[in-house]
């Protein structure tokens, strides 16, 4: 298979006395689309947040394109974390746009602040990605002038403008009215077709089945079962997977 983009080994994460992730092993290869499903509270968001170091593991390692977030002695160096984090784009359920900035300003901000681009360069890149997500006509709108689906597409354009090699989506469509889900899934599907490496958490099971190369079912902080979409959805092996699939399909 192609090169590993993310390598997680024996990842444990606790909040206080609660162990939320209990030894996760996961490798995501270049161009692969991994979809994580599982009940609420099973640790899906925590896992995604550990992948780009928004949360630090309690133990275990996370490597991005072969480089560990922590150094040889297990310490986290801020510079190294910041650099690796820019290689991973993340899109959340809530769009987290700056309300006082237009769509294009939202997409420009991190490029200027973190990538140190000139305003002119950042604007060009922002136009490119806003056009890509179908918002060429909405660049100068403020978030409150945009629908939920449009706001989420701005958030995707903002992540893409950093030109990451990996994209993480955490329930990107969960906050949207049903009629707006499709336009966001369409953008994600296009990224998939272009070969972007992606890890998605979603409740859209049909979408998961359609775009996923691999489905991971998580429950109570462990990976219970993983496999091809057709196997997980049609012939789950574990009782917990069966129960979950029956509830959500
Ligand atoms: P999921 O995304 O699968 O619904 P989460 O990863 O969000 O699950 O949460 C798993 C568990 O971890 C939940 O019980 C949640 O309350 C807990 N948790 C998540 N983040 C924190 C935090 N920052 N502090 C304390 N507990 C947390
Ligand atoms: Mg979650």
Automatic annotation (TrEMBL):
A Pfam family assignment: ABC_tran
MF GO annotations: ABC-type amino acid transporter activity; ATP binding; ATP hydrolysis activity
Domain named ABC transporter: residues: 6-245
Gene3D superfamilies on file: P-loop containing nucleotide triphosphate hydrolases (3.40.50.300)
Top-level taxon: Bacteria
Locations listed in the record: Cell membrane
GO cellular component: plasma membrane
Topology in membrane: Peripheral membrane protein
Entry-linked SMART domains: AAA
UniProt keywords, alphabetically: ATP-binding, Cell membrane, Membrane, Nucleotide-binding, Transport
Main subcellular localisation: membrane
Protein name per its UniProtKB record: ABC transporter
């Amino acid at each position: 298979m192609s090169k590993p983009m993310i390598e997680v080994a024996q990842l444990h994460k606790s909040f206080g006395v609660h162990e939320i992730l209990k030894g996760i092993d996961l490798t995501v290869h270049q161009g692969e689309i991994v979809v994580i499903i599982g009940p609420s509270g099973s640790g899906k968001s925590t896992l995604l947040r550990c992948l780009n170091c928004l949360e630090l593991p309690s133990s275990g390692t996370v490597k991005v394109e072969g480089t560990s977030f922590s150094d040889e002695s297990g310490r986290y160096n801020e510079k190294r974390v910041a650099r690796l984090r820019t290689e991973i784009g993340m899109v959340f359920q809530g769009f987290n746009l700056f309300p006082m900035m237009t769509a294009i300003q939202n997409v420009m901000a991190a490029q200027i602040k973190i990538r140190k681009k000139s305003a002119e360069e950042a604007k060009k890149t922002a136009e490119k990605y806003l056009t890509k997500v179908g918002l060429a006509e909405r660049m100068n709108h403020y978030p409150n002038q945009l629908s939920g689906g449009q706001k989420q597409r701005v958030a995707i354009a903002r992540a893409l403008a950093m030109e990451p090699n990996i994209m993480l989506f955490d329930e990107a469509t969960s906050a949207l009215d049903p009629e707006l889900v499709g336009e966001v899934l369409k953008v994600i599907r296009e990224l998939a077709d272009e070969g972007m490496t992606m890890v998605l958490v979603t409740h859209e099971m049909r979408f998961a089945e359609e775009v996923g190369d691999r489905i991971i079912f998580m429950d109570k902080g462990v990976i219970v079962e993983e496999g091809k979409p057709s196997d997980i959805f049609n012939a789950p092996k574990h009782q917990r997977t069966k129960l979950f699939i029956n509830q959500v399909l």
